[in-house]
Design goal:
single chain, alpha/beta, TIM Barrel, 8-stranded parallel beta sheet, 9 helices
């Protein structure tokens, strides 16, 4: 089986990859993960992701944004810095941005302010948004509704919700990013029930490596570190849940990622 997959969310700048990043990328290629979008979660990692993508053209792209965990430090000068990064062709989305009321590492008001500022940037640069939401669905959806018709698309990254959230995000025009959470029959039940309801033209897959190692991987990696090379395992799970072939899932998600992020 020959796959041509795109991991739309890998954190290759994470410290756990520092010692063997090139080997990780090589294993991903061998597994059929031909392209990756490297996530930026703050100014430092956004710069690092952009530099990594610049060094691997046609294989890596990146996002630039400030995660809600870091929203309290968001400033106008950071917004200007993000804007400059997003003018690079290899930086294809604004984010990771959004709301996280589960951790509340930044006050909710600061999260909302930083989120709105980054949505304004997305409108300005005409690039899609790479979105994070946890325990903040109401505010998240309401803010996005204010931008209806102005954004150039986006993805609900690492979607873990059920039908209510799925329907809301589809109505907002978002793509849905599925991770190894779908491989967990305990915590991922609502998601597993939702996966078959995602329109094929809105489906995307991602690892969120090094996080969210699929629970059912056998043998489990001793390090417990997730890698982009495990994306085929997620694709296979999505295929089973949807009653489709892995080849069909691979072709659809790759086509969707290319179109959303303008990778070609």
């Amino acid at each position: 089986m020959s796959l041509d997959l795109i991991d739309i969310g890998s954190n290759l700048t994470h410290g756990s990859f520092a010692a063997d990043r090139e080997a990780v990328m090589s294993r991903a290629l061998q597994a059929g993960v031909r392209r990756q979008i490297v996530t930026g979660a703050d100014l430092a990692s956004s710069h690092q992701a952009a530099a990594l993508a610049a060094g691997h053209p046609a294989r890596l792209w990146s996002t630039a944004g400030v995660h809600p965990h870091h929203a309290q430090s968001f400033s106008a000068s950071q917004g200007t810095e993000l804007l400059e990064l997003l003018r690079l062709d290899s930086v294809v989305a604004v984010g990771e941005c959004g709301l996280d009321y589960f951790r509340n590492f930044s006050p909710p008001a600061a999260q909302r302010q930083a989120f709105i500022a980054q949505l304004d940037i997305a409108v300005q640069v005409r690039k899609p948004v790479f979105l994070h939401q946890r325990d903040a669905h109401g505010d998240f959806a309401a803010i996005l509704q204010e931008y209806a018709g102005r954004l150039r698309g986006g993805v609900a990254h690492c979607f873990t919700g059920g039908e209510v959230e799925l329907d809301a995000y589809l109505a907002l025009g978002l793509h849905i990013g599925i991770t190894g959470w779908a491989c967990d029959e305990r915590r991922g039940l609502a998601l597993r029930q939702s996966v078959p309801r995602i329109p094929p033209e809105r489906l995307l897959i991602e690892t969120d490596a090094p996080y969210l190692l699929p629970r059912d991987m056998l043998p489990a990696p001793k390090s417990r570190r997730n890698e982009p090379g495990y994306l085929p395992h997620i694709a296979a799970t999505v295929a089973i849940l949807r009653g489709e072939s892995v080849e069909t899932i691979g072709a659809a998600t790759t086509r969707n990622a290319v179109a959303l992020f303008a990778l070609e």
